[in-house]
Amino acid sequence: MPLQLSPNYASGTFTAANRSAVVEAIRTVLLAATWTDVSGGVGDRKMDSVATADSLQTRVRLYDPGSGNCARIQFMSVDELQQGIDLFLLPTSGTDYTYFAGDYQFMILLGGSLSPGRFVAGGVPYLESFLSGADAPITQAIWCHGNTSSDAATIVKDSFRNRSTLQDSQWAWQSLNGNAWGGSTSGTGSQRLAALLRSHDGNLSIPAGSVQYKNRAAVRVPPRLMWGLNAADVESKVQGQLWDMALIHEAVAMDSTKTFEGNTWQAVTDSNTVDFGQASVWARQ
């Protein structure tokens, strides 16, 4: 299965010195990626993603709460019957946020930083044909997470910035066919990417090293996102594939770049030697 690329895509950087400026900067990014305004005004916007070929779509609220440290990002269903948790993003002055945004998902991070309140991501996945078939149809799937759990932005939560699995400590929300759940959770049902395991490592309690081809190139696979149906203690299942991203089985420094499949890609995950196969998330520039 090849990597899935959005028809419309925007990447680059922005700086935003206050909460409202963060909201307006993200809105500008999403408009460039063909999301549409739904309602609101300066400092409080609702926007819709493009619908995928399988009719998966999400709405996001970007807003300045009027006080506190962070701008807020809240994913929800388009009918707003399922409303997600707030994700927190600190304003930045003098340093730039990096964004990766396509028709169906977006991710924002601060270059060179693992600090809390400096990462958010979410959207709707691509469905491989068997995931939209009659035997187990997915008619709604939304995911999101950030790397801190409060406006204080002092607690670091697992995110794609430091790991490919959020099982130990996540601030995430997800909804599958109306089964919505999230918050500060840990467990087998937490968001994670389906990584390969080196069979000769044997002891499953020890994270494996990188997974390589004979020529020592790291194995690259589509980033298939997993989560449990309705709780963190429910076994994770693959719910779809992330757009404009790849999973590469080697630990590298965050923000490294490489070229493959006709595009330049940037390492989102920093030096992941914790997870099996050293799986690292990469985003299309």
Count of all domains: 1
Q: Span from first to last CA?
A: 21 Å
Beta-strand proportion:
35-45%
Can you tell me the overall shape?
A: globular
Gyration radius over CA: 18 Å
Q: Mean pLDDT, nearest integer?
A: 91
Helix content: under 10%
Task: List the secondary-structure elements in sequence, H or E.
Answer: EHEEEEEEEEEEEEEEEEEEE
Which structural class is indicated by helix and strand composition? mainly beta
Going across the major beta sheet, what is the strand order?
Answer: 1-7-8-9-10-11-12
User: Tell me about the biggest sheet?
Assistant: 7 strands, antiparallel
Low-confidence stretches: 199-207
Number of strands: 20
Helical stretch count? 1
Structure in words:
This protein has one domain (9-202, 223-243). The chain contains one helix and 20 strands. Residues 199-207 have low confidence and may be disordered. The longest helix is centred in the first third of the chain and has 14 residues, at 19-32. The protein starts with 8 loop residues before the first strand and ends with a strand. It is globular, with a radius of gyration of 18 Å. Helices cover 5% and strands 39% of the residues. Strand 8 and strand 9 form a beta hairpin. The strands form four sheets. It has a seven-stranded antiparallel β-sheet with strand order 1-7-8-9-10-11-12. A five-stranded antiparallel β-sheet has the order 2-3-4-5-6, with helices on one face. The chain has 285 residues and is mainly beta.
